[in-house]
Amino acid sequence: GTLKPATVSIISLANPLASAITCYFFLGEIPNLQVIIGGLIVLMGLLLYIWQDEKARQASLTQTAAPATDS
Predict the structure, then answer these.
(1) DSSP codes joined into one string, 4-57
(2) Angle of helix 15-27 versus helix 33-65 axis, rounded to 10
(3) Longest dimension (CA), the chain
(4) Which of 41, 37, 43, 1 is nearest to 18 (CA)?
(5) Contacts of 29 (CB under 8 A, 6+ apart)
(6) Which pLDDT score, from 0 to 100, does residue 70 have?
(7) Whole-angstrom distance, CA of residue 23 vs CA of residue 32
(8) What is the C-alpha separation between 22 and 8, in angstroms, rounded?
(9) Is the entire prediction scored with pTM above 0.90?
(10) Rounded CA gap, 59 and 41, in Å?
C-alpha cells in the first residue's frame, strides 16, 4: 500500500534516532543522557501516532463493513 504524507513526515522524525543508534554500533560513540531522552520521546511519539492511525483505520474498516439497516 501507500503511505499518507503525514505518516511519512512523522516517520522521518526517527532519522536522528537512527543516526545515533548507527553511530553507537559502528563508531562506538556513546550518546549522552539528552540524546537518549530525546530518542525515547521521539520513539514514544512515533508509536503513539502509529497506534492512533491503526485505531482510526480499524474503525473506518468496521464502519464500512457494518451492514446497512433499514429503519
Answers:
(1) -HHHHHHHGGGHHHHHHHHHHHHH-PPP-HHHHHHHHHHHHHHHHHHHHHHHHH
(2) 130
(3) 68
(4) 43
(5) 20, 23
(6) 63
(7) 12
(8) 21
(9) no
(10) 27
The SS3 call for residue 2 is: coil
pLDDT digits (tens, 9 = 90+) for 20-65: 999 999 999 999 999 999 999 999 998 998 899 889 888 888 887 7
Q: Tell me what the mean pLDDT of segment 11-16 comes to.
A: 87
User: How far from 29 is each of 21, 22, 24, CA to CA, in Å?
Assistant: 9, 9, 5
Q: Which three cell numbers stand for residue 9?
A: 513526515
